[in-house]
Amino acid sequence: xxxxxxxxxxxxxxxxxxxxxxxxxxxxxxxxxxxGRKDAAAGLTHILLTHGHxxxxxxxxxxxxxTGATVVANADLAAWLGxxxxxxxxxxxxxxTIHLDGFSTTFVNxxxxxxxxxxxxxxxxxxxxxxxxxxxxxxxxxxxxxxxDIFSDMALIQELHQPEIGLVPIGDRFTMGGAxxxxxxxxxxxxGTVLPCHYGSFGIIDQTPDLFIAGMDGAKTKVEAPAVAAxxxx
Length: 234
Prior knowledge:
Elements: E1 2-5, E2 11-14, E3 19-22, H1 37-41, E4 46-48, H2 54-57, H3 60-67, E5 70-74, H4 75-83, E6 89-92, E7 97-100, E8 103-109, E9 115-117, E10 123-125, E11 130-136, E12 142-144, H5 154-161, E13 165-169, H6 178-188, E14 193-197, H7 210-215, E15 222-223, E16 231-233
């Protein structure tokens, strides 16, 4: 499995059977390198969304039109995207699993909100915020937590799915901060590798992963905090 962090909560995941973008927030993302857009879109098969905020839906509509990639999202968000012209959609909801070519996606809880204010100034609720657990045919199980605080039912996610790779929000203010995120990883999970995200983009959230890395000190879990667009093979 090849993984690239593309800034904020956006990730590119490549396996033998799929090329996946999760929360592809490119336009307006201060951390994203625009020259990387072509590579991120090349051969794209799926776009997975944790929730409906603009810094996670991001460039989904444009990318779906350009590439024909299938978009996976909660039912309310998927219906809204359909109204915007996205045609290849797979919709689910909390607790449900969608089986795709080479992998499956399970929607799990996240403690957050999910809405967008459209051009007419109206706020539209776009379903529940979720984390996404990806089970692959021949690759490690991956859990993108989405935007969330710590919650004790993370223990059930570990029991049910046993994720080996964690993509963990650490930026504070809108999600758990680094110290709490480290507590969540150590108390509830047995990750082999974790990658922090949702930091370093906007000035009002934490700019470095230092608190998270310090909180993970002594843990058996390997912490990877790559530069934006650096390629990891896990």
